[in-house]
TrEMBL record:
It comes from Thermoclostridium stercorarium (strain ATCC 35414 / DSM 8532 / NCIMB 11754). It comes from the Bacteria. The keyword Hydrolase applies. This is Putative unsaturated rhamnogalacturonyl hydrolase. Keywords: Hydrolase. GO terms for biological process: carbohydrate metabolic process. One of its GO terms (molecular function) is hydrolase activity. It holds the Pfam family Glyco_hydro_88. InterPro entries: 6-hairpin_glycosidase_sf, 6hp_glycosidase-like_sf, Glyco_hydro_88, PolySaccharide_Degr_Enz.
């Protein structure tokens, strides 16, 4: 397999901001890989993809060592976000067949299936370390938790996991995708039955743009569920590109031009479109939109590999002003999503 060396070097620089900053203190002390959290999980998953594309053992060695270190620590708080690193652990087991990962994979899958809080009708409640988010569905859950469950089900032949993952994708689409536009609302609550601010938040949309292509690839079955997820994804992409800025970026509220352009969302959307074209989910004519977005993200990477123009952590907003006021700062997930995007360019 041919490798784009220039993009690989850029990807190494981007992920290097996390790998090499484990001892950093001060303003960017959160930019590191020494924790079991979702930004790290996105970066780990991206690194595994780079390993599979390049067959360079240094990436595999890093992953093996990372899990050796983290699994020796106490089990982290279980919530929707801390499930994310378990996805790459399943990939690592699939690659190495090392049985030491199996008890941990089983532990996380058992929690998701039997203990993770559910909303009305059995949706995965977006429970975090600080808030149970009673009766709430968020876009993020699909990438952070459901992909792991699907992958574990496929690798270990656990049909119950696969069925639950399928249900969660369909369930989240039902309540989060706007039927008129195809865009995704940030969240939904059964406690009042509404979509909060009605915000088409860009990073939330990007979790579906990127997560749906992963779902379809991992699931690998052409049936009613995959067809439904695919058409939902196509609807979203066709609407998203209408709002892409001339500079290739997307506004933090997709449909509101006066909100600032946001890099991490653009990276996730670029990844989804580029991979979707490669998988044949959408026509080649959409490649230009993915490339335009990717080039815009690359323009936000400085000489050290830091990704700029990333909105800080964003909780559920009760009004649109909430999203407009979120500050911009380098973040671990900004690095991770950009790294993920670059895996489609390597």
């Amino acid at each position: 397999m041919s490798v784009n060396v220039e993009m690989l070097e850029l990807a190494d620089k981007v992920i290097g901001m996390l790998i090499n900053n484990d001892k950093r203190e001060g303003l960017y002390d959160h930019l590191h890989m020494d924790n079991w959290e979702w930004p790290t999980g996105v970066a780990l998953y991206s690194m595994y993809k780079v390993y599979k594309k390049t067959n360079d053992k240094k990436y595999l060695d890093y992953l093996i060592n990372w899990y050796d270190v983290q699994l020796a620590k106490p089990i982290p708080h279980k919530n929707v976000n801390t499930v994310c690193p378990a996805l790459t652990m399943v990939c690592l087991y699939e690659e190495t067949k090392n049985e030491k990962y199996v008890p941990y994979i089983n532990m996380w899958a058992d929690w998701v299936m039997n203990e993770m809080p559910r909303t009305q009708y059995g949706g995965m409640q977006h429970m975090t370390v600080l808030n149970r988010h009673y009766e709430q569905l968020w876009d993020d859950t699909l990438f952070m938790t459901v992909l792991f469950l699907l992958k574990a089900g496929k690798v270990f032949g656990r049909e119950g996991y696969v069925e639950e993952a399928k249900y969660q994708f369909l369930f989240h689409i039902k309540y989060l995708q706007d039927r008129k536009t195809g865009l995704f609302y940030h969240g939904w609550t059964f406690d009042g039955r509404h979509n909060f601010a009605g915000a088409f938040w860009a990073r939330g949309n990007s979790w579906f743009t990127s997560g749906a292509v992963e779902f379809l690839e991992i699931y690998g079955v052409d049936d009613a569920v995959s067809r439904f997820v695919k058409t939902s994804w196509v609807d979203q992409v066709k609407e998203l590109i209408k709002y892409q800025g001339e500079n290739g970026l997307f506004n933090t509220l997709v449909d509101i031009e006066e909100t600032y352009y946001e890099t991490s969302a653009t990276a996730g959307i670029a990844y989804g479109i580029l991979k979707g074209v490669r998988l044949g989910l959408i026509g080649e004519e959409y490649l230009e939109y993915g490339r335009k977005a990717a080039h815009a993200v690359i323009s936000k990477i400085d000489e050290n590999g830091m990704v700029h123009g990333v909105s800080y952590g964003t909780g559920m907003g009760k009004d649109l002003e909430h999203y407009k006021k979120i500050p911009i700062a380098p973040t671990a997930y900004g690095q991770g999503l950009t790294f993920l995007m670059l895996t489609e360019l390597i």
